[in-house]
Amino acid sequence: MDFLTLTEIFEDMHKTNSRLVLIDHLVTLFKRTPVNTIKKIIYLLQGKLSPAYEGDELGLGEKLTIKAIAESSGISVKEVEEKYGRVGDLGDTAKEIAKNKYQQTLVSEKITIERIYSTFEKIAKSTGSQSQIIKLRLVSSLLNDATPLESKYIIKFLLGTLRLGIAEYSIIDALAIAFTGNRNNRKKIEETYNVYTDLGTIAEILSKKDLEGLNELQITPLKPIRPMLAERIMDPIEGLKKGNGMIAFEYKLDGERVQIHKDGLKVQLFSRSLEKITNHYPDIVDTIKKFSIDNCILEAEIVPFHLETKRIQPFQELMHRKRKYNINDVILKYPIKVFLFDILYLEGNNLTQYEYTKRRTILESIVKENKNHTIELVKQIVSSNLNQIERFFRKAKDDGCEGLMLKQLNSKYRAGAREFLWMKLKKEYDNTLGDSFDLTVIGALLGKGKRTGYYGALLLAAYDKNSDNFQSICKVGTGFSDRDLELIYNELKNYVIETKPYNVNSNLKMDIWYTPKLVLEVIASEITLSPSHTAAYGLIQKNFGVALRFPKYSGRIRFDKKPEDSTNTSELIQLFNRQVKRNKL
Ligand code: AMP
Fold it and tell me: Which of 257, 315, 435 to mutate to test the pocket of ligand 1 (most atoms within 8 A of CB)?
């Protein structure tokens, strides 16, 4: 397949705001793609060169890209910059310039997907003192042979601004239709994806074999699996009922969730959204390497920790660990503690099918055998006694926890699932809503007065899995410090999109629309019915959605959450119903 065909399909995708049409485009694309190219196509669609967890970065800056455009078109850097200033997007600038190329190469080679991919790979791999020159040469040579449309997408890809906004769910739907002829088979594909998060390999197997071929993709150390999630509950009694009167209560620590993978001497750490975070925590890597186990997958919460007071510190301190340089100084200055709460794999055996109690016993023995001051077991009690539970809850709060996690004793580890097998009880449970909301930014109104240049209010959305849509739930304009405003503004700049994206459902008029990407934590006093917001529209009452009353930004950007992990429609309905029940009491 050639790259031009792919870019034409990208253009069609950009034009639609219907999810079904988008899936149709994907199906057509997958059907036309040869078996040996499908993997690459999947990664390119996601703006990557490999599964996201590999963390491969192209790392091309604007400056170098502008130079490459100038070099391949024979005009000066200044002229490219001027044009860029007018057009506003470097991909579109490259397209415009390519249209009136000064220097035409005499023989131009057709660009294949293989060539695009291998050049991108070379760019990603080139390091060292000569790397800038090598990258410049590689990009220029691609642009020399590219049509205007191809130039646009080459640049967008290299800068990381491709943003086709295709959710994994849509790719999975399209794979089911293209390769099995039945959308219902998405379930099996999703189940595989939950434990083997490499969509490229999944697509390749589907195109070579059949649905059963996916059985060969099993949970494997060094490949992250999708984390099991918790439903929220309002009080411990509700949790006890779900567990037939007996539940495991664990401290709910407020830090960063980590999946720790060990395979021989190799150790990798993955975040909740399956990004590689190994480099942020060399201290954890060193400790795990010394474990007397050959291979395992563990789950834990990392928290900042004060070595003298022995107290958990606010989660914000973990931000220092995200620095690329001088990490060894940071380790000393910002110590951490790792609280293990699960084990999913041990010495070649998949433990996800074991019950919680058995996994916990195994975990306890591992911690005992590998004593170390940075690693501990998360505190836990198994109880049915409300007084004991209340005391444990108070102690958790005193120790700096967010609340408690409740886990059903016979529950298996269900990768990627949010069910009542795990429940979260936050410390605000005596408030009306019991929790904060994680919502995705989808739009903004421009600011006035003091906020000129920034936004005045952000439009936030909940996620609806059934329709794969982000549905508006509130506008939020309070709770932002000046620093927050600047940080969020700079972050959002990357996601501006010309028109409302296909997967955003809102009837409101906004000054700016964003590709759903950034998740913010918000607190609110109540959930109300709303004729203008689209969250859970028609599901509680005809012609009404739900909205948050008095929403306020909590001060926390949830970089660890994907937009699809935002508070979802069924959670909102549950919360609304609980609120109605309480108000009646
Ligand atoms: P939330 O982010 O509010 O949906 O709460 C779930 C998160 O709590 C998990 O993703 C973990 O990062 C965190 N957490 C803290 N302590 C535990 C624990 N004992 N078991 C499971 N998750 C925990």
Answer: 257
